[in-house]
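Input record (one chain):
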Amino acid sequence: MSDPTQPEVADVELRLRADLVNLPVVRGVAAAVAMAADFTVDEIADLRLAVDEVCSQLIVLAAPSADLECRFTRVPGTDRCTEVVFHASTRSRDGRPPATDTFGWHVLRTLADEVETGLGEGVRPPVHITVRKRRAR
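The corresponding structure, as predicted from the sequence alone:
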């Protein structure tokens, strides 16, 4: 049973092959999650584009035959604000983190309210990107 003092969260998780042909699936889920969070049409489009950019960057960095793991979390906030957090990760081909000095990264930072990235440890370390998009009314 859930704790009534804690805010409800809604999660959707996907595990797909890290391949560009799978981008439409993740974009579609992004749109569905944003609609469920009552985002505006423009906010839905921003989240879809941000998710597309995140996945594209990770797919380019992915090791051969790696999976792309994606998680959408819808978090009700205070003051009529809802936040969608998208976290994606894959195994890195060569241990490089995503480039943060590219046009694509600039676009991503413009579309999302917050963006962070990280790289784990090991031979083929996990690389991840997390974006947060808020709906404020």
